[in-house]
Design brief:
With about 190 residues, the chain is of the alpha+beta class. The protein has three helices and nine strands. Strand 8 and strand 9 form a beta hairpin. The C terminus is likely disordered. Strands 1, 2, 3, 4, 5, 6, 7, 8 and 9 form a nine-stranded antiparallel beta sheet that branches. The protein is about 30% helix and about 35% strand. The chain folds into two domains: about 150 residues, no CATH class; about 30 residues, no CATH class.
Length: about 190
């Protein structure tokens, strides 16, 4: 192998490396563009019951590619990785004879699952999208209860961290209390 062959081989490896990075970037942007469709499918397939949800913002779509990107042909790559979609789920609760106000219970949910697709870096086409049938989820404790009036204005809100702090101050930590939570939340009801 002469110097010219070595140089051409190096240029080819660099071109393939840039194309692989471009394929990952194209797929990540495609996932951000299609976040609403993905969220609707997840809610339909995994949550099931009618529930209100908020779509994730573009910043709440995190794609972590696998280290290995598979080359299928000239400019065609198979990219796979883990997708983390953060959505907000809300469920209104209506009590009998309590139709004046509405209580909404909500939480943040991170849906985490594996995705893969075939990317053509020359055309930017994404095809053969696959989503794993198994999904993980996390919640980071940003749950809340809100009380709305007839006009839909929020009149009261309590976050999970407030209840946790009140319970901790009331002695409910490491088995110090009798197991009943004694702190009260003031509600303008």
């Amino acid at each position: 192998m002469g110097l010219r062959d070595w140089w051409n081989d190096r240029k080819e490896r660099k071109r393939i490396q840039r194309e692989m990075e471009l394929a990952v970037e194209i797929f990540a942007n495609w996932l951000v563009e299609h976040r609403k469709v993905l969220t609707r499918e997840i809610i339909r397939d995994f949550v099931g019951k009618p529930i209100y949800f908020h779509y994730p913002s573009p910043k709440a779509v995190v794609f972590t590619p696998n280290k290995k990107v598979e080359m299928l042909g000239e400019g065609i790559y198979k990219v796979s990785g883990t997708l983390n979609l953060k959505a907000w789920l809300e469920q209104p609760i209506m009590f009998p004879n309590f139709d004046i106000n509405k209580i909404v219970v909500g939480t943040d949910v991170h849906f985490i699952f594996d995705v893969a697709a075939v990317i053509n870096v020359y055309t930017g086409e994404v095809r053969d999208f696959e989503r794993s049938e198994y999904m993980r989820y996390k919640t980071y404790g940003k749950s809340y209860v809100r009380l709305y009036d007839q006009e839909g204005r929020k009149v009261w809100e309590k976050l999970w961290k407030h209840w946790y702090s009140e319970g901790y101050e009331a002695g409910y930590r490491d088995g110090e209390s009798d197991g009943y939570w004694t702190a009260r939340s003031e509600c303008p009801c």
